[in-house]
Backbone:
């Protein structure tokens, strides 16, 4: 090519080389992030890739609006930096949902700009194979990921507490989806007007909202992961539209990795993804009506519970969202160290969907400084409950509910659970007598060997520490 | 770019994503979801290109929103992931 040594030729080469480098760094970074020892360097490598790709994009030919661009990057970046630094560790899941929604919205907005160009007769920025069709598909997926993630954020943040369901919701969703397919076809293949353009995006926002409002309870992690994968896919598709290799590769890699992650989570709950989306689990109106609850809840005070644990040989701790809310992980670790000094063998059992995201508990325990050789996954520890003296459940609920094994009519029937009920004694730290986030009655609380220790997890942990010290 | 080349890129990238994630311990699921959330922040680059070619006011407004949201995704995703992984470091050093 004779244009190679002109300044435009050099800029083109630099841009392509930088995008290639960014794609390599993203994949390498994700690979590093999948091992505990190298995880930290992984995010830094990916970060370098992002900076390189962003800076080099300023050299793209025939662009203008540089001031607007820089202002938008500065404003968006600073707000995100500030909020990301400030947020408490326990609120991480909803922040991921929020930032993910932003990415989906960005991909949808790119598609909107491209389609506006078509509308005004200028044509796409790059005419490529099926570019307009891909732009429309990306727009649909990105918009759903945007509004869906914002609803997920609102739910986890406690802004939206209720689960909204009404008769005919599935039918309405199906009708909306059909309308979107028709509108999408018009946008992709016909000379559409601005009416169809705005209706398409309006309905896509709406369906994202409708898909997410009926979902609650333990399904939220799966939903966030699903929207994460959808955003990746939307970004990848818009990458094809703009003929941008870094976007194509990073987007599709995240799309497929996110899909796998979503499947792993759904499998851990023994629920196909379609069930999560369409059957409304843990909504409160379908739970707790199966097997009649026998027995009653029996309370214990913290001092007695402390003595039971101090004289135990083996204690397994099962943390849940209640520990996260109370920020009790530091106190719990202090308690564990005291018990270890007394010769008690203590381990942590983590259910794959404990908390609001998979690995949520691992992150919190890591924050408190709990070494990972004390932490076990469900499959590795479940056989040990029969030889355990005390199972201490801290603010976990559905993941220890034996209804998953016994009650065929329960919405969580078939979900793998931690068999805490098989331990000799079960101590439950819980704020009140009500049901958990999912609204399903927990049979474990009524067992003969179960004692309830009411109170905020942090306060109770403090009392347990005092109790163990006094022994 | 020719359609089939695009298809090859799609296929290879999809398998890469699948392979990269398939052997991840549960302990890293949240940070990894957060990390992949950061990686699709690359949408910022496309948003810059879209805004860079915008002529009419409505294109500029939507393009501006695209860049703003894209920057939020990239920066927020990075900060949150980095903070989470920071804790793994301190754990390891204490062990």
Residues:
């Amino acid at each position: 090519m004779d244009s190679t040594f002109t300044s435009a030729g050099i800029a083109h080469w630099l841009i392509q080389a930088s995008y290639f480098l960014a794609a390599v760094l993203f994949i390498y970074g994700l690979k590093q992030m999948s091992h505990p020892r190298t995880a930290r360097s992984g995010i830094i490598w990916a970060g370098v890739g992002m900076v390189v790709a962003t800076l080099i994009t300023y050299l793209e030919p025939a662009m203008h609006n540089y001031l607007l661009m820089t202002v938008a990057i500065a404003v968006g970046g600073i707000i995100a930096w500030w909020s990301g630094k400030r947020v408490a560790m326990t609120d991480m899941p909803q922040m991921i949902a929020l930032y993910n929604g932003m990415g989906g919205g960005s991909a949808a907005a790119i598609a909107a700009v491209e389609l506006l160009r078509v509308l005004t007769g200028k044509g796409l920025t790059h005419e490529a194979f099926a570019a307009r069709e891909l732009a429309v598909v990306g727009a649909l997926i990105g918009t759903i990921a945007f509004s869906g993630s914002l609803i997920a954020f609102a739910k986890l943040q406690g802004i939206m507490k209720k689960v909204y369901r009404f008769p005919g919701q599935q039918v309405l969703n199906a009708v909306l989806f059909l309308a979107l397919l028709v509108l999408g076809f018009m946008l992709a293949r016909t000379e559409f007007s601005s009416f169809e353009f705005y209706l398409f995006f309006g309905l896509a926002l709406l369906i994202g909202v409708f898909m997410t409002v009926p979902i609650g309870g333990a399904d939220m992690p799966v939903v966030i992961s699903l929207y994460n994968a959808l955003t990746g896919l939307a970004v990848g598709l818009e990458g094809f539209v703009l003929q941008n290799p870094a976007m194509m590769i990073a987007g599709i890699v995240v799309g497929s990795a996110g899909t796998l992650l979503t499947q792993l989570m759904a499998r851990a709950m023994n629920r196909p993804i379609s069930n999560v989306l369409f059957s409304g689990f843990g909504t409160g109106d379908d739970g707790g009506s199966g097997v009649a609850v026998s027995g009653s809840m029996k309370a214990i005070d913290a001092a007695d519970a402390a003595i039971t644990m101090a004289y135990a040989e083996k204690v397994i701790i099962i943390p849940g969202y209640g520990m996260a809310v109370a920020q009790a992980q530091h106190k719990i670790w202090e308690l564990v160290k005291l018990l270890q000094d007394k010769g008690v063998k203590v381990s942590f059992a983590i259910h794959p969907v404990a908390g609001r995201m998979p690995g949520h508990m691992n992150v919190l325990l890591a924050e408190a400084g709990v070494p990972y050789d004390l932490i076990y996954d469900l499959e590795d520890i479940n056989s040990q409950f029969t030889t355990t003296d005390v199972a201490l459940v801290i603010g976990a609920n559905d993941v220890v509910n034996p209804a998953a094994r016994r009650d065929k009519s329960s919405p969580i029937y078939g979900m793998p659970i931690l068999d805490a009920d098989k331990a000799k004694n079960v101590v439950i730290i819980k704020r009140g007598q009500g049901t958990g986030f999912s609204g399903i009655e927990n049979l474990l609380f009524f067992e003969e060997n179960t004692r309830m220790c009411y109170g905020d997890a942090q306060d109770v942990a403090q009392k347990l520490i005092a109790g163990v010290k006094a022994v | 770019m020719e359609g089939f080349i695009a298809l090859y890129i799609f296929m290879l990238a999809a398998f890469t994503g699948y392979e990269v994630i398939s052997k991840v311990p549960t302990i890293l699921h949240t940070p990894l979801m957060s990390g992949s959330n950061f990686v699709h922040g690359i949408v910022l680059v496309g948003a810059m290109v879209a805004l860079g070619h915008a002529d009419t006011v409505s294109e500029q407004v939507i393009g501006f929103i695209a860049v703003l949201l894209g920057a939020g995704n990239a920066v927020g995703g990075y900060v949150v992931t980095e903070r989470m992984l920071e804790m793994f470091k301190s754990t390891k050093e204490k062990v």
